Inverse folding.
């Protein structure tokens, strides 16, 4: 049985009218389940940028600079309809790379990496989780959301592995695109070697949720968000969706910058890629 087990995010009992607090610029950008968690990230943070949403999808879209038209379901923290506590914090225009929070899950089925036994193939230098090959992917973007943004992707297969990859992202330079394309590149490499089972470790909950949950409704709704806006990363998710056909993939979330060696190295490769000349 190659399938990995992860931690289960338990939902509060009896929670009604749940909101998602998206922090685009703060101490740790991400999506949070409570105002108190959001407040910790934006209180007294220069140029904080955050917003409250009724759906997790819209919250992640806000972090990715996707415009949402769901004014009834969401409230800009610098605008109207804020609670007394929320209104104490002013909004700004800062932009920062989004390292997604593990608190962003809206369903208890999301997997997170805890620990598992692994072993290395001395010939190919792959790391296996059960009978699946493990790989770490990451993307980054300096100046995310700005005119001179530079994005890169990193794919890490193991120490000194010939497939380890550091590239400059082509096309639109954003953090979310870099995260998605990094996963695409890893799958392309795996398919070239006829790898049938792959575990992808990523700190991007946006990528995981997009390919495992949201893409079904996006296709049904003509690539429109529930709020009415367009899915800005449509082409990248279409590419990822096509690549996942014919290969068994397990998506595993690891928190960014939390000491996981594979994730740290993939992040370093992505940053190196971002410093390279445009493709």
């Amino acid at each position: 049985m190659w399938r990995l087990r992860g931690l289960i995010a338990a939902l509060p009992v009896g929670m009604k009218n749940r909101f998602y607090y998206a922090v685009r610029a703060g101490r740790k950008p991400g999506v949070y389940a409570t105002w108190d968690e959001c407040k910790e990230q934006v209180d007294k943070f220069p140029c904080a940028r955050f917003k409250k949403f009724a759906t997790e999808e819209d919250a992640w879209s806000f972090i990715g600079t996707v415009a949402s038209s769901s004014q009834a379901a969401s409230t800009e923290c610098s605008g109207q309809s804020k609670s007394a506590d929320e209104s104490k914090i002013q909004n700004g225009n800062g932009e920062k790379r989004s390292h997604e929070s593990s608190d962003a899950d809206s369903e208890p089925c999301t997997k997170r990496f805890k620990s598992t036994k692994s072993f290395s193939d001395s010939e190919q230098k792959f790391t296996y989780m059960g009978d699946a090959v493990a790989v770490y992917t990451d993307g980054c973007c300096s100046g995310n959301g700005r005119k001179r943004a530079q994005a890169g992707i990193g794919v890490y297969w193991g120490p000194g592995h010939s497939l380890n990859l550091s590239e400059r992202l082509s096309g639109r330079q954003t953090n979310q695109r870099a995260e998605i394309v990094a996963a695409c590149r890893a799958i392309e490499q795996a398919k070239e070697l006829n790898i049938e089972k792959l575990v992808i470790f990523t700190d991007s909950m946006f990528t995981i949720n997009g390919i495992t949950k949201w893409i079904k409704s996006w296709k049904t709704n003509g690539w429109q968000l529930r709020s009415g806006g367009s899915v800005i990363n449509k082409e990248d998710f279409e590419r990822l969706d096509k690549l996942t056909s014919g290969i068994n993939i397990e998506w595993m979330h690891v928190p960014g910058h939390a000491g996981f060696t594979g994730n740290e190295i993939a992040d370093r490769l992505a940053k190196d890629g971002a410093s390279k000349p445009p493709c």
